[in-house]
Structures are given as C-alpha cells and as structure tokens.
Amino acid sequence: MKRVIESALCVYSLAVASLAAVAGPAPAPAELPPGPGRNTVVRVCGDCHGVDLIEGRRTRSQWRELVEDMVSRGANASEDDTKAVINYLATALGRVNVNKASESDIETVLELASPEAAAIVSYRTTAGDFKSIDDLKNVPGLDFSKVEAKKDRITFAGQ
Question: How far is residue 15's CA from residue 102's CA, in Å, rounded to a whole number?
Fold first, then answer.
C-alpha cells in the first residue's frame, strides 16, 4: 500500500511540476534525444511512471530540484543515477539562463563552441544582464544564428 501511495505521489508531483513548465512539453519517450544518461532516465523514471510524463523545459537547477524531490519520494536511484538523470535532462531538455549559467551549461544546452559560451559570460560581466534574445547580437565572437536556433531553450530571468 505504501508503494502505491508513493507511486501516486510521484506521478502527481511530476504532473503538477509539468503544468508549471513555461516552454511546453518535451518529446515523447520514443523521441527522447540520444545522449549520456538517457537509458538511466528511462530506467529510473520508469520505475514510478512512464517517461512520457517528463514535460517542459527547465534550467539545470529546476531539473535538480525536481529529480531530488522524486528521489525523496522514493524513486529508486543511486547518487550516480541521480547525477546522470539531472545531467541528461539539463542537457537534452533543459533551458539555460544566459544571465546566470556557467560557461559549461551555456555551451552544452545551446550547443555552442567553448569560446562562444565564454564570450556570453564575458559580455554579461561587463555590459550587464541580457534582457532579450536581441541583446545577444552584441556579443563579439558569437554566431547569433546558433543562439537564435535555440531561442526556446534560453531564459533571461529566474533560476
């Protein structure tokens, strides 16, 4: 009975968190992008519910918070599994706050070259926070077309 209640709470919590997502649903399970950690996501998340409940684009910290909540509710995941799930979700389905994220997160989520991610961080340090996607046009050494193609994965406020 306890496992049934925990499973129901897990599904409910994920559904509520998904409804709060800003950028819409992630791909269906068969369409989850390939990448390191994908099989761990399917295994760990599939213990309580189908991975089809994974919706919305979140920042790394938002994914971490959600995954840690699922683990606290009984998701069967080791520390290594938890890290792999968070890394996969942040990389494959994540959003990045270009005003707060590390070079590494910007590079990974937006699929930029390391010098381009460094240029974003350097520019925001000297010029201040970006307000919109158009502000990124001013970053020297950044191929704006790459950023524009990933605009649905960029956020400017919040986490």
Answer: 29
